[in-house]
């Protein structure tokens, strides 16, 4: 007899991110993703914001960090958002470039050699690794790393 009971329907809820400057992160996430603030708190030592779209909570920001994201430590590898078209990916890329975001690769790249899906790979103001991708339309570019998934940020 197994002690594991798998839920019939399981999906990701929201993602919580620790940030160093709530106002700076709010500005970034609202401009890049079009998030609306669904709730926030500004009590000293307890600053947070709930972000979403169309009434759905997607990301929570918690001003609890003192330094940048450290990819060498256990925890979040990257956060990925899917859009419908590669044109939407390119529009987000323009916004990110206007904000001075750092990109891992130049432009839209496929998830792997010959893959139709792909997108852009970048960091937020705290160095958290992010991805915006479309399921098709990226196959006109070469994969930046032939031997590993592009979203590995290798």
From TrEMBL:
<keyword id="KW-0479">Metal-binding</keyword>
<dbReference type="InterPro" id="IPR037523">
    <property type="entry name" value="VOC_core"/>
</dbReference>
<feature type="domain" description="VOC">
    <location>
        <begin position="11"/>
        <end position="135"/>
    </location>
</feature>
<dbReference type="GO" id="GO:0046872">
    <property type="term" value="F:metal ion binding"/>
</dbReference>
<keyword id="KW-0223">Dioxygenase</keyword>
<dbReference type="InterPro" id="IPR051332">
    <property type="entry name" value="Fosfomycin_Res_Enzymes"/>
</dbReference>
<dbReference type="InterPro" id="IPR018146">
    <property type="entry name" value="Glyoxalase_1_CS"/>
</dbReference>
<dbReference type="InterPro" id="IPR029068">
    <property type="entry name" value="Glyas_Bleomycin-R_OHBP_Dase"/>
</dbReference>
<dbReference type="GO" id="GO:0004462">
    <property type="term" value="F:lactoylglutathione lyase activity"/>
</dbReference>
<protein>
    <submittedName>
        <fullName>Glyoxalase/Bleomycin resistance protein/Dioxygenase superfamily protein</fullName>
    </submittedName>
</protein>
<keyword id="KW-0560">Oxidoreductase</keyword>
<dbReference type="GO" id="GO:0051213">
    <property type="term" value="F:dioxygenase activity"/>
</dbReference>
<dbReference type="InterPro" id="IPR004360">
    <property type="entry name" value="Glyas_Fos-R_dOase_dom"/>
</dbReference>
<dbReference type="Pfam" id="PF00903">
    <property type="entry name" value="Glyoxalase"/>
</dbReference>
């Amino acid at each position: 007899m197994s002690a594991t009971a798998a839920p019939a329907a399981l999906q990701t809820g929201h993602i919580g991110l620790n940030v160093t400057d709530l106002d700076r992160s709010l500005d970034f996430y609202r401009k890049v993703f079009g998030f609306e603030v669904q709730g926030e708190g500004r009590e000293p030592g307890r600053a947070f914001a709930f972000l979403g779209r169309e009434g759905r909570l997607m990301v929570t920001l918690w001003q609890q960090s003192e330094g940048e994201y450290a990819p060498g430590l256990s925890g979040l590898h990257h956060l990925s958002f899917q859009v419908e078209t590669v044109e939407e990916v390119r529009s987000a890329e323009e916004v990110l470039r206007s904000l001075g975001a750092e990109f891992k690769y130049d432009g839209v790249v496929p998830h792997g050699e010959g893959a139709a899906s792909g997108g852009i790979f970048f960091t937020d103001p705290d160095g958290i690794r992010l991805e915006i991708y479309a399921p098709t339309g990226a196959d006109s570019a070469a994969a930046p790393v032939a031997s590993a998934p592009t979203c590995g940020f290798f």
